[in-house]
């Protein structure tokens, strides 16, 4: 039961920078895939195509049965399926934590405010931020803000969650709390594609690790295969 089927995806930035050079990846429902590889190899660009944040020129991407158009025409449809968490938390600084989480459900999903708030409070509780609901992002630590970003993405009830180096901007003591939230999500059966350098997380949580280099997937395997083969 494949929920992401990317086949032979090519992307150029401008006319001549060939950033994705024929990348294929299939992700099954409930699978956790970790993408690793050197900086600049195209990992972020690749997963951003799944959420229609990046156009691509050749190949095909099907997300839960929806074929992505190359020029981002079905962007709204796809963003309902796919939640994303970024390195920078991207919270709205002038909105409270609760408002950050309810914004999309109210304006995109058209949920009544009371329902959106109820769901948001449950999510904030799950990621351990409930006491901070009335505060503003600037009053929270980086680790707390990132957990709010996870709750915000989950509020849209996505089928797939993408993580783009979610711990890279955090102080070391805050990395664990974010990885724990991701671990819980994985154990609940969420389909996840994570770009991360966290080897411990990859070893313990990933079903599959893929290595990207210079615009191509060059290696893939279970964590055991991946980390034990030189
Ligand atoms: P990774 O996530 O593996 O670090 P990225 O996907 O962020 O790699 O970037 C791959 C390459 O594409 C890098 O060389 C980067 O500088 C380049 N790149 C990223 N975004 C743009 C852009 N908007 N325009 C031109 N080049 C870009
Ligand atoms: P970059 O890597 O280029 O610095 P990011 O990956 O942090 O940027 O974010 C890219 C853009 O996507 C930002 O302008 C951000 O506002 C926007 N964005 C934030 N949240 C979402 C979301 N859930 N879905 C789509 N786009 C988002």
Short note summarizing the structure:
Keywords: ATP-binding, Nucleotide-binding, Phosphonate transport, Transport. The chain has 230 residues and is of the alpha/beta class. It is built from eight helices and ten strands.
Describe the structure.
InterPro entries: AAA+_ATPase, ABC_ATPase_HisP-typ, ABC_transporter-like_ATP-bd, ABC_transporter-like_CS, MetN_ABC_transporter-like, P-loop_NTPase. Belongs to the ABC transporter superfamily. The protein has helices at residues 43-50, 75-81, 97-107, 113-126, 142-154, 172-187, 199-205, 223-228; strands spanning 2-13, 17-28, 32-36, 58-63, 66-67, 82-85, 160-164, 191-195, 208-213, 216-221. By secondary structure, the protein is α/β, with parallel strands linked by helices. It has a six-stranded mixed beta sheet, sandwiched between helices. A four-stranded antiparallel beta sheet has the order 2-1-4-5, with helices on one face. Helix 4 packs across helix 5 (142-154). It is globular, with a radius of gyration of 17 Å. One adenosine-5'-diphosphate binds at residues 13, 17, 19, 37, 39-45.
């Amino acid at each position: 039961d494949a929920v992401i089927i990317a086949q032979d995806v090519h992307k150029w930035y401008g006319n001549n920078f060939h950033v994705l050079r024929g990348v294929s990846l299939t992700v099954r429902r409930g699978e956790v895939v970790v993408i690793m590889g050197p900086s600049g190899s195209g990992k972020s660009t690749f997963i951003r195509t799944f959420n229609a944040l990046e156009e691509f020129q050749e190949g095909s991407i099907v997300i839960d049965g929806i074929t992505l158009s190359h020029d981002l025409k079905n962007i709204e449809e796809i963003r309902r399926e796919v939640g994303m968490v970024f390195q920078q938390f991207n919270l709205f600084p002038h909105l409270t934590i609760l408002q950050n989480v309810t914004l999309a459900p109210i304006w995109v999903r058209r949920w009544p405010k009371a329902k959106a708030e109820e769901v948001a409070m449950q999510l904030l509780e799950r990621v351990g931020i409930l006491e901070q609901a009335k505060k503003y992002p600037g009053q929270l630590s980086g680790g707390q803000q990132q957990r709010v970003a996870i709750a915000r993405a989950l509020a849209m009830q996505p089928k797939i969650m993408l993580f783009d180096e979610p711990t890279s901007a955090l102080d070391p003591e805050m990395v664990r709390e974010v990885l724990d939230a991701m671990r819980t999500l994985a154990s609940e059966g969420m389909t996840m594609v994570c770009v991360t350098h966290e080897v411990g997380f990859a070893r313990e949580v990933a079903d599959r690790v893929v290595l990207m280099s210079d615009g191509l997937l060059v290696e893939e395997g279970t964590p055991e295969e991946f980390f034990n083969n030189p």
